[in-house]
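FIELD: query
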Amino acid sequence: MIIKVEGNINEYYVQSLCMLFFPGAKFSEGEEAVKGVPVVAVSLRESENGVEAFASIKLDSKIKTGSRYENYKKEYTKNRTAKIAVGIAVFEAGKRFFGTVPPWGILTGVRPAKIAAEMLDRGLDFATVKKTLEKEYFLNPKKSTLVTEIATIEKKIIDETEEDACSVYISIPFCPSRCAYCSFVSYATPRLLSLIPDYLERLKSDIDRMFETIKAVGKKVVTVYIGGGTPTTLDEYQLEDLLAKIAENVDVYSLKEFTLEAGRPDTITKEKLDIAAKYGVTRVSINPQTLNDNVLKQIVRKHTSEDFFRVYNIARESDIKYINTDLIAGLPGDTFTGFSKTVDTILRLSPDNVTVHTFCVKKAADILRYNSDIYSRGGGDTPKSVSYALLKTKNAGYVPYYIYRQKNTVGNLENVGYAKPGSEGLYNIYMMEDVHSVFACGAGGVTKLISKTKPMKRVAFPKYPYEYLDMNKEPEKIDDIFKQIVDFYEERP
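FIELD: result
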């Protein structure tokens, strides 16, 4: 796909808009039209009172256009007004070209609840926020209702968050095997798994130093999240070693939430869950993704539905308070019938949280090696599956409490966390909505420093475990990471 822009337009934003109609699109630097390659042209004209955007989509002999004029408004910056105009112009061109309307309208960002939250903060009521999302951003009514409900629930939790609160993320980027759709920085070969002992020694050192730094900058840890990868790839001894180190640095029983992302049923044992409970873990995620064994084989998951049921029962009998289960709608080989059966079965188990993801494949996923035709503009059965999950969870007493979107999801759909009231996953809200600073340790860990008086700052550890371990040879690089954190809080805005 070729994109041409004229005027003060963010080209990356235009790419995101194009992917609403061309999922999985790859963008070319070329200027000349090539047969079979779409060309999207966008221009923006600014005036004293507003902006006007024009867009066209051309593919061979077919061309459709769209335009939008937006007056400046006191509640929006000029950049926001321009973004809305460009978004609607591209949206109109795409709607005319394909005859379809993306369910999320012109919203392209990862955090759709942010816009609804901004409106609520301005004092708008639920009905007005919903109507505005439909009128100005072209969300369909189901999506506008969903995102406004989530923003309302998040606002209550965020408003109750202490001023000095923060969270800690600890990265265990190892898995026993790699799922076909996975794009995370996780490692599954025997050679790379052999890094785990050295990795943990280095990680424990950073945990000590990170908690010392958090104390030095005057923050209070309220949630800890151990993610990956699959943290329960660690054996019992390694897991206890890690949890004991965390307990040395923070009173785990004072935390609002302590999550262990177990994830893979084939890595979970009763002993590991007992150890987790012993060290104060309050929330564990056990993820079947689907209960269809044929689909599990197709996506190269190394467990069966029976494995999931066995492990779920072990978790329910443990002293861990909350259980989350992840499901994925739109998996290759799955159908609405299959997915709805999975949803119904999971709800009968009554986990505290159910997170429903939409199938998303990124460039690094193994599945693209043997199935490059996996993207679907309409989404096939997936929109129906996602709607079914929303309806059934609500009927079962769950509330949608957090949401995020990704590029290249089937049908341009969303990922939503549902919870029994009072059991919402707090870290998910804090992290997704940038409520407070999240301090990260481990390979691929990115610390997000949040302040009301200055822009967010990200401080990252190296992405890959072997690079992370190599930092032992360059202690000055380790020192610099922690110095950047301290400097952020010491420097005046």
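FIELD: remark
Residues 364-374 have pLDDT under 50 and may be disordered.
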